[in-house]
Structures
1.
Amino acid sequence: MAPESLTDNRFQPGSPRIAVIIPLYNGAKYIGQALDSVFAQRLQPAEIVVVNDGSTDDGPQFVEELAARYPVRLLHKPNGGQSSARNFGVAHTTSELIALLDQDDIWYPNHLEQLVRPFLLNSERELGWVYSNLDEIDEAGRLIARCCLRFLPLPNPKRDLFGCLAMDMFVLPSASLVSRKAFEEVGGFDETLSGYEDDDLFRRIFLAGYDNFYIDEGLARWRIYSQSSSYSPRMAASRMLYFRKLLSEFPDDPRRDRYFARDFLAPRFFPAFVREYTNALRYGDRKAVRTALDNLVFVSRRHKRKARIVMALVLPFLRIPFLPRTLLPVMPGVSPMMRRLLR
């Protein structure tokens, strides 16, 4: 059921035009399902653009054949990642609102119909984006969890910077509708990021003073599996890039007792770097182990005092060749203990 605020009569006449942007990179397996979900929308978009980001499979050919029967534009560019593909697609459209869809995700038929409604309300604060909850599915499309964001301790909608920094925002592109004005004002996606680029975009739109609206209803299906971009090496590298970007953008302010690195950023990112390290050990990737360990050291030095002490005690053992790998069987029990120690 739609929230009460979306069922009143405070609507402006007419509906803004919507452009759908789908980045495509070796996504032949799922792109048909994604596009079918666009064609099935009760509120049809004005523009549908698929950006071939240097694919080497037959995904672009499939879209090209589909474009002969449906109003889809296929654009081509060299591979540069999702950020550059999305920016490229947005630059080739003119609609007032931008609907982002990943190649392996699926919209429910009421997706655009529901997300556009808050943009039609009379409000004193200009909306930058509207987003919703979503259902998690696996590689085969089987339902894993309905409204999966309810299982996370997330503040929705976003109301303060500190919440945006202390944890991942989980404003998923496939579950969002973005104002073109806001998107262009902040410069679109940061093309140096191939992970956390969505978090970065919506944080900058928030900082620019735009409001956001959250619908606690699953309006899309989010496909999570081991080959998805969330688990790619690019994501791991981008995590450190984003951490460093946030450190640079939000230096500590002792006079106001605001220690962004210690209180927000390091506690947020440290567990992810621990997971990267244990995964690198598990797969025997020595280069990845060294990189992950360097990242752990870098982040821990900006963590709270207890975390710095624990890391200083553990680090000499982690640097002993082969020793960490022998501890892999007990790693599942070590992680909860580490979380307790680092509180």
2.
Amino acid sequence: MRSRVELFEKIRRDRRLDQLSIRELADRHGVHRRTVRQALAAAVPPPRQAYPVRPRPAIDPWVTVIDAWLIGDKDAPRKQRHTARRVWQRLVAEHQATLAEVTVSRYVARRRVELGLLTHEVSIPQAHLAGAEAEVDFGEFYSTIAGVVVKCWMFVMRLSHSGKAFHIAFGTQAQEAFLEGHVLAFEYFGGVAGRIRTDYVARHIIGVLCPAVLCARPPENPAGVAVMARVRAHNEIDGKTIASCPCCRKGSCRHAGEVLREARNG
């Protein structure tokens, strides 16, 4: 659906290029000739006519009372708040009001939205121990190098506790670049985080970082079966698992918003 600004622009352009008359412009754009005259007179549509508020003889005498009840419900327990039916019942019983229940229901529904009683801002703080977790993303961006636009990939690692981040650009998205990014980030931070959460890792990289025994995925080829025993021996000490695969485990991966934006924006 076109806006009035776009409509006015098209009418003025057709008038300037094709020298059409007002009647021809009205027929081409399917509007009244009055609208064409308005478009030719000014590029900005005139403001809509403001109509006076229609009187509501049934509900207007009780607007103040109803608003007071609804505002008072903010501090009341959920089960004790007024429903639209309860508001109507109190108006009839306590104020001898003579109005239909549907009139009260429509007003209460609209008024709750206007007062902001149906929406509540919720904040869930996240607490991370120092060095316990880092978030990683590997996204593409374009850079102008020596006058040539080159496609590059930005590796980003951000510590969840402090928000400190490491960035490095690569000319490829190969496994070597992804792994080198981790090594350089660990050297930059001076240590290794207890857990690395990746926003997205390609399947060929997952096969290197997270073997099948770590993420409970079956091997994709017969050769993987022979590798599983060796990986399990390195992964377990006295029968206890010392490594895990948070990026592949179902329900454990979460979206790292800031890390993703930094990788996408370069």
